[in-house]
Design goal:
There is one protein chain. The protein has 295 residues and is α+β, with helices and mostly antiparallel strands. It has a domain at 192-295: TonB (TolA/TonB C-terminal domain). 40% of the residues lie in helices and 19% in strands. The protein contains 7 helices and 10 strands. The protein has helices at residues 10-16, 25-31, 33-99, 135-142, 206-216, 221-225, 255-266, and strands at residues 108-112, 119-122, 152-154, 157-160, 169-173, 192-193, 230-238, 244-251, 274-276, 279-291. Strands 6, 7, 8, 9 and 10 form a 5-stranded mixed sheet that branches. Strands 2-4-3 form a 3-stranded antiparallel sheet, with no helix packed on it. Strands 1-5 form a two-stranded antiparallel sheet. 8% of the residues are buried.
């Protein structure tokens, strides 16, 4: 029979407080207890659902932020590479313009014309020793007048005609332009490039590099106890023989996490070196290392 009794019902409450002061607070508490219990249960369920949603949203944000940082890094490397390639193309065009020979200038020719001048000398009559030629003699000498000197007197005048008229001479001055090719400065063997035509590659590609990092990273105990999570961004030199050279921290997380990331990067196997103009060169390589606790 006790199983059929509803202890929260109004009839049971009236039975308990029959003949007692119902204006006392205990009667009201007994009547409204079921409502309070229901409200408490509802608030508890709502609070649990809100907390679960917040946790799920935070995890989704963390994953999105990691993907965004990786995409931003890849985009930056691509822009640096395209910018370096455009600079090289412009420098090659300038070199071609410099190496083009100038058109040879036509030599300037100075022509000097000479003109034969017939000198006339006035001689007094008493000093003329040669009689003037006759008309027949003049006619016979007309044909050879251009090749011989003819001296005659006419009315006290003596005319002298030069034997030959010198041909005009030309003074030629030729200018030759000589183009001396500029010597290209020799590149320093120890120079480290920010971007190159062919960037260095990890054996197996970028996915193999991420797997290597995740399998060799040892989470620092101090960072794990303090709940430190995040990303360390490193830059290191891939030398011309593919080995890892200088390593530096671009964005730090903590000293323990920074040192662990540098240790793993120094242990990386050889890369395929980057190339510039067909030659292997030293190149800076940027790498983000993610530290995330397993929950």
């Amino acid at each position: 029979m006790s199983n059929d009794v509803d202890l929260s019902s109004k009839e049971w409450c009236d039975l308990i407080f029959e003949g007692k002061n119902k204006d006392f607070g205990a009667y009201q508490l007994r009547r409204t207890s079921i409502q309070r219990h229901n409200k408490a249960m509802l608030y508890t369920i709502i609070g649990f659902i809100v907390a679960a949603c917040l946790v799920f949203a935070w995890n989704a944000y963390q994953r999105w932020e990691a993907q965004r940082q990786l995409a931003l890094q890849n985009q930056q490397q691509t822009q640096e590479f395209s910018f370096g390639a455009s600079e090289e193309e412009s420098s090659e065009e300038e070199e071609k313009k410099i190496e083009q020979p100038k058109e040879e200038e036509k030599p300037e020719v100075e022509e000097v014309a000479q003109q034969a001048v017939t000198e006339l000398k006035i001689v007094p009559d008493d000093k003329v020793t040669t009689p003037p030629p006759t008309q027949d003699e003049v006619k016979q000498n007309d044909a050879a007048i251009s090749n011989k000197n003819v001296e005659g007197t006419l009315g006290g005048l003596t005319a002298e005609i030069p034997k030959e008229t010198p041909a005009p001479t030309a003074k030629v001055e030729q200018k030759v332009a000589v183009t001396v090719p500029e010597e290209k400065p020799k590149e320093d063997d120890n120079k480290v490039f920010q971007s190159v035509e062919q960037p260095p590659q990890f054996p197996g590609g970028e996915s193999a590099l991420m797997r290597y990092l995740s399998s060799h990273i040892q989470y620092p105990a101090m960072a794990a106890e303090q709940g430190i999570e995040g990303k360390v961004i490193l830059q290191f030199v891939v030398t011309k023989n593919g080995q890892v050279g200088e390593v530096k921290v671009v964005r730090s997380l903590s000293s323990d996490c920074d040192n662990e990331a540098k240790r793993v990067v120094r242990s990386l196997p050889r890369f395929t070196p980057g190339r510039q103009n067909g030659n292997a060169v030293n190149v800076w390589y940027t790498l983000p290392v993610q530290f995330k606790l397993q929950k």
